[in-house]
Design brief:
There is one protein chain. The chain is of the alpha/beta class. It contains eleven helices and nine strands. The strands form two sheets. A six-stranded mixed beta sheet has the order 1-2-3-4-6-9, with helices on both faces. The protein has a three-stranded mixed beta sheet with strand order 5-7-8. The longest helix is centred in the N-terminal third of the chain and has 16 residues. The N and C termini lie far apart (about 40 Å).
């Protein structure tokens, strides 16, 4: 079988990650996909030349979420007993939201088609989302008599607000790309043939900034989702003290005062 996740690093610091199980619409619950994604994120975090990543799906869909074939008793999503199933989730798909939360490299989801159930949640784990006009999103767990076991009930309300998140989760109904844009689930909707190019253009806008400042900014944004103001300010002060010592900060100030374009080196 080909690699479950294709990792393509560009010289511009942009990394393209492609879910590569198109024959079954790129489910993310199978152990090989979980391991491949965890490995790709670890590689991304360890690469000091990586500035931004783009996550997309091979074929017509972004991700079908959980592999329904594995939901029968004995499958990796229904291990036969409650105790075994709990451990299966903790050791399997639940590692993904924790890995995305720990990652400091920004990730853009380029949603090329259906993002269903855990596939919708995977898009929500990313920092930004761009959708093809053909994309659809569904927090569809209730349709299968299930709940979001991968953190969807944490991510979705923070992106679209309580009311819309409740509507999506309690009905399980899908929304199209235009509605996703209206509710802030995605920041752009583009023709399908322009999706990766549009994601890359956004990635380059991010990558043009000093990488240490970008990584720390992402960390503060994530902490702001779950932290009170006072500890967040303490963390921001420590990070700002670090940022003031970087060569890139000095270069940015000098370039601004000299009215020239800055040249950042990641130091």
């Amino acid at each position: 079988m080909s690699d479950a996740v294709i990792y393509e690093a560009g010289e511009d610091g942009i990394v393209l990650l492609t879910l590569n199980r198109p024959e079954i619409r790129n489910p993310i619950s199978d152990p090989e996909m979980v391991e491949a994604l965890i490995g790709a994120l670890a590689r991304l975090e360890a690469d000091d030349t990586a500035r931004v990543a783009i996550l997309t799906g091979a074929g017509k869909g972004f991700s079908s979420g959980g592999n329904i074939r594995e939901m029968k008793p004995g499958g990796n999503l229904n291990a036969g007993t409650p105790v075994a199933t709990r451990l299966s989730y903790k050791r399997g798909i639940q590692r993904l939201p924790l890995a995305f939360a720990a990652l400091e490299v920004p990730v853009i989801a380029a949603v090329n088609g259906a993002a269903i159930g855990a596939g919708c949640d995977l898009a929500c784990m990313c920092d930004l989302r761009i959708a093809a006009e053909s994309a659809v999103f569904a927090e569809s767990f209730v349709k299968l008599g299930l709940i979001a076991g991968d953190g969807g009930s944490w991510f979705l309300p923070r992106l679209v607000g309580w009311s819309k998140a409740a509507e999506m989760a309690l009905t399980g109904d899908s929304i199209d790309a235009a509605e996703a844009l209206a509710f802030g689930l995605v920041s752009q909707v583009v023709p399908g043939e322009e999706l990766v190019a549009s994601a890359r253009a956004l990635a380059l806008r991010i990558a043009a900034n000093p990488p240490h400042a970008v990584r720390m900014t992402k960390r503060l944004l994530w902490e702001g989702r779950r932290s009170d103001l006072a500890p967040l300010l303490e963390m921001a002060a420590a990070m700002q003290a670090t940022a003031h010592t970087t060569d890139d900060h000095a270069e940015a100030v000098d370039a601004f005062l000299a009215k020239r374009a800055p040249s950042f080196r990641g130091t």
